[in-house]
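Supplementary Methods S3. Input chains for the assembly prediction are listed below.
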Amino acid sequence: MTALVIRRLVWTIPVILLVILFTFLLMKQIKGNPFRHTERNVPVAIQQNLEHKFHLDQPWYVQYAYYVKGVFTFDLGPSMALRNQTVNDVVEEHFPTSLELGLFAMLFAIVVGVPLGVVSALRSNSVFDYSAMFLSNVGFAVPSFLVATLFIYFFALKWGAFFDLPTNGWSGWNSKILPSIALGLAPMAYFARLVRGSMLETLQQDYVRTAMAKGLRWRRVVLVHVLRNSLIPAVTAAGPLLGFLITGSFVIEFIFAIPGIGRYYITAVEARDYSVVMGLTVLLSVIIIVANLLVDILYGFLDPRTREARA
Amino acid sequence: MRRRSTLAIGAVALALTLLAAACGGGGSSSSGNGNGNGQEKAAAGNLASSQVITVNWGTEPPSLDPGLATDTTSSNILLNVMDPLVRLDDKLQPKPSLAQSWDVSPNGRTVTFHLRHDGRWTNGDPVTAQDFVWSWKRTISPELAADYAYQFYGVVGAQAYNACKSNCAALADKVGVSAPDKYTLKVRLTSRQPWFLQQVAHHSFLAVNKKAVDRWGSKWTEASHIVTDGPFKLARWRHDAEIDLVKWKGWRDARDVTLTRVNGKMISDGTTAVQAFEAGETDADVIGPPPDQTPRFKGRPDYQVFPALGTYYYGFNVKNIPDVNQRRAMSLAIDRQTIIDNITQANQIPAQAYVPKGMPGFATIDVKSKWLPAHGDLDQAKQLMARVKDPVKNVTLWFNNAPGHKPIAIAVQSMWKKLGLHVTLKAQDFAQYLQFLGPPPNKAVDAFRLGWIADFPDAINFLEQWTCTSGNNNTNFCDPRYDTLVKKARQTPDDNARYGIYHQLQEILMGPNGQLPFTPIYWYTYPALVKESIKGTFTINPLDSVDLTKVQVRET
Amino acid sequence: MTSVNLREPVAVAEGAAAGAVAGAPIRQAGLWRDALHRYVRNKGAVAAAVVFSLVVLYCLIAPLASPYDPTEVDFRQAYQSPSWAHPFGTDQFGRDLFTRTALGGRISIGIGFAATLAILLIGVTYGSVSGFLGGKVDNLMMRFLDALYGLPYLPFAIVALAIVGTVNFWTMVFALSIASWFTSARIVRGQIITLKENDYVRAATAVGARWHRVLGRHLLPNTLGVLIIAVFLELPGVVLGEAILSFIGLGISPPAASWGSMAEDGRDVYQIHPHIILIPSIAIATLVLCANFMADGFRDALDPRTRKS
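Predicted structure tokens for the full assembly:
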């Protein structure tokens, strides 16, 4: 197990380097001047000063080397558009917000989605099951921007006096409710479906039947054995769900004017703020890489079958 | 940012080439009060007990360093937390601020400012002439790599220092800014520049506190570090979310300031911003409602439209559409009023010429000129089109992919279709679009949209854009007669004589025998949502600036 | 987009492969008939397939049958609510939305399928190379995928759109597929490994059958079922992805419009003219819902192992 972890850890380094290279080469393909924000042309001397300041007058591999060095010393360089901030500042300022939003959304998804899936499985093919599954299918299919727009209209504007929820922002506790639910809706639906499916499968396993035959109380069997085993797929889905939350956060942060990295990413690409775009892309990729690593390790512990297979 | 900076690129910049030449003074300015309803008298009512307001600025100020800021939002915050040497009044004329007076030498090349003695930094130090000398040289220095260093190119030695590759220290000493005593600032200019005083009102010319900059480096603009000298202090700055100002009691004229706190929000999406205003979360929204939502607000007391000095236009690539009759036909086929009534919605003025109404010397342009009727002239357009020998039937119209441009392009596409033209629309994102337009423009461009917002109140700022060598002439239009007249205008100090030349220039562009390298669509306005309680005191001036010292909250 | 349903397809795909391969070479036709039979028994999947076909038919036929010119601007007709003359109302320019929604559907569904196929193509290529070469190369290529599994496609799509500048059908397909193929590559590779170790294939290779014969006659046909499932698993994500990009202002350029960019147009006026945002959004939701149900149906039909008892 330790060997596996170490091997995976060592592997992440070349992958991160590749991701940086891929992003870097993509960025190099983008046309547009990061120092021209208006319709006015930038004088030559000023353009040169700026390019020199940000190493843009160097060959691309030198820039790449600078960048890689920066990443491994946790210095993502200065922002080209926000002249008094570094990319690290942007990350420190925006990332906690996005993280919080993601965690709340995930919390909502688990707290609502898992019980929904469990009850649906226990009463499979009942009216409850059908309506829960239909709803979760719908929740999965309706575009998040419509959900967010309707939420704001009904809960913040139309019945705003009753609910006392702000239309946007991320400051007080009440400003966090609508965006978290809007973002958590699709993962919630996903969890419900996933848990239901794996519950149904586990319920048919021999050992469950055996446990039940032994006369233990049925409810305990379900809770202790079935639930635990049914949640393994949910754990392994955490990595991809993270990606899903990140994608969703772009829209939710945009509509709710939340100062997270999703909203800022779009601004940075528009402003050709290369260093910020690079920094945020690499950051997101590293998060995914680390999350996958953790999930695999966790999976190894949870599921004896893979533990043996991998040893 | 999405709404305003793309539609009305509002940087209050000064065109570089202008500074090199001399021309007559800023002249008597008109108030620029178009058909907007923004200039109403202060509301009756008594002062409200709470003088706290929340404003949506629309975007994060990218920098609160006067040397590095390039945009409207930063400029708006800066001019309320700092003390400029001069401010522009309602008529855009310079009036004393930190400088109580100034002298201009007979040859116009030396300007001496006399500073007030009661200017204070928030750390208690007095504001001195030396602060300005240090700050200006800092902005000019190549190390800072300031976008707006060229603002100073009219000052002796500034351009050489900014472009220096070696020997920079010596060149810095030669820059023509000095402080003969603690409260006297002397500026030597490369030539007579009567607009220099208006220019000094720009945020690039603010002083910064050397102690704060030295201590904190590039982080000196954070709320916990910044040292300011204006009517408001920076209380809190949560990047990309909130920026809060509080009244600074130590300011020299603090008794004239009524507001005690201004909370700033940065909601860039127009619909989200409107929702926040309607829910009472903001008191003023300077980005205004999105055009599509405007009909809902028109006629309501909290919807206001302020006049602006800017023109939205469609340019032609004259190499691709060489026949002037076709360009004129395309220009006359555009029903500007219909576009305004159905799409842009904010009482914009159908542009009858390039220089916007409200610019000094252009107050009555709409009466004088019938060049471009508000509803166009389709019959004449068709006649002209019939005269074109070799018409370009397939036209590619480009615009940048930002809210607001697409509907106008769709409308123009259908209007040009009536001339028998097949118009293909192409959108690009803004950064790439600008590069694509050159100058010279990419060969694939037949027509394109752009806008121009005044840097300072003189029409030369608009007209010199169309000279052969201009860095902002994306049309391939080049007429030596035009360039000669522009040169002549720069050397004409008398206002009325110069305005006469400006009118000749406009005639070359779009008069009866004009070349029409582009066709203006409308003159900008600044729509805003302002609660009734601060209506009348909360105004946006034609250069897109809000003076918070004048704002009062009244009981309604 | 790929982030959804991620673990599921892996298991399913491998299961389906095993099931399909078991009897593959002998009773190919019978297998498909059985699959059809099983699909038809799933009422939800059948309903979804019917609705899906109706939507596609509407998109194809409505513009041909419509009396309105979808590009004709007439401001006097602007913002009409749904009526008999205009079942979906009209937009800002007085254009008939019944016709335009169908045209938007062609683009949305077209981009959806094109990007899905592009994703599968890249994934199949990468996965087959990895699976066939095996050994160290496979190890290397898979480590890479393991690490990037679940990487959000959106940041890369936004950068890709900034690179191309003008957004049209194919650049949108490019943006949507550039960072979305990791999952399908994994599925295919798992598939190939399973098949490689399948007795029949081993035997064929052992008696000296050329690799492309093995590939063409035995492997690819057996992969078809998995691919059908994969198409309908990917499609919803791609369609939603296109809508999201359009909604944040990076959508396809006019005069072309997709459901996503039509919804974006409707956002500004949703309080006054809600039909403009609702109709394309509902269209997207319907398509995604149907595709999900159909994917379930295909999975049950083509993968006997997960069949409901």
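Confidence is low (pLDDT under 50) at residues 1-43 of chain B. Residues 305 and 476 of chain B are 35 Å apart (CA to CA).
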